[in-house]
Sequence to fold (363 residues):
Amino acid sequence: MKVLSVVGARPQFVKAFPVSRALRARGEEVLVHTGQHYDEELSDVFFTELGIPEPDYHLGVGSGSHATQTARVMERLDPVVVDEDPDALLVYGDTNSTVAAGLVGAKRDTAVVHVEAGLRSFDREMPEEVNRVVTDHVADLLLSPTEKGAENLAREGLADRTVVTGDVMYDALLWARDRVGDATTVLADNDLTPGEYVLATVHRAKNTDDPARLSAILDGLAGVSDPVVVPVHPRTETALREHDLWDRACDELRVIDPVGYLPFVRLLDGARRIATDSGGVQKEAFFLDTPCVTLREETEWVETVEAGWNELVGADADAITTALTRDWPLGEKPHPYGDGDAASVVAEAIDAYLQDGATPPTD
Ligand code: UD1
Ligand code: UDP
Fold:
């Protein structure tokens, strides 16, 4: 089988790394980087650290409005799909690169495979929710990380295209967890003691584009007595500067540049608590047994909340400080994200689909 995989933003490099290995063990993979993320610390560092093969194509789309970014990916990916003529086009998650590539595949009548299908926040104002819904509806094979995702797809009439695979981010995390010990000095470099700091990340449009929300999040984090380390996304740095909050953030929090995956996993593992609006980080906190405070009103990763390891606090300063400070009565953890072999299940499901065009049962 020949699979053309499309990645472009930080979380997609992490998701693609285990899948890429599994695909290459079975057949040919052509890797396309859209260039949605281009800073060294949001892109190249992951290829080096995770040993992801050099992309065969780099589309260089860069930043822009949603329309510009989506249109550029479509325009530049289309001739690649025609030239390569893959058996399947594989997309990950919910970014503009995902939806654009999904549309190109659908219009070129190439089998579109969506890894991380079925996730829903049920908030159509969230740009990623539009990307998820559109991608799922144009895709031919929907690979859902969870049973909950499969239920969402069934409600939208897509059950017959769905396979539950487990979460490929769990595979990536297990790989990293075994290596972080020797691979990074991030704690010492930032003068952090395990169990005595909070790790925070913020980058969602809803939080960065609204100065009132951004300022309330700052207040909530600054209310914690432990050091709060914040690897800052470039979008958030720009917003903090624009809203005159940058100096305050640097005074009250430990603001650092984004770090690579292994140092980030070390930071997650050593933190007393996590505060985040990231999708991936909520789950990584769960995998590493670190309680998570989510700076949103809803989440796609509902299992983490139901299990009592994640609390949704939105952008309410008092609620953020309280959740980061309180004792958490943590019980048994369920395992809704698979056994850490999702990447091979993904590769197998694609192979099976291409061989007989049928999706295997989702048990
Ligand atoms: C994108 C995804 C989001 C994902 C996030 C992962 C969409 C709609 N959003 O959000 O789902 O959670 O990636 O991090 O696809 N910038 C840089 N350097 C870079 C990349 C971006 O400085 O390498 C700055 C630019 O000012 C840019 C802004 O960040 O305008 C936003 O980048 P963009 O890729 O549009 O969206 P993200 O917020 O990164
Ligand atoms: N991540 C990282 N360095 C950082 C922040 C995040 O390696 O400084 C990783 C994190 O471990 C996770 C992924 O990036 O695997 C999450 O990306 P992000 O939060 O940007 O996107 P989302 O998951 O919200 O789409």
About this structure: The chain has a mean pLDDT of 96. The first strand starts at residue 2 and ends at 7. The chain has two domains: 2-167+338-356, 176-325.
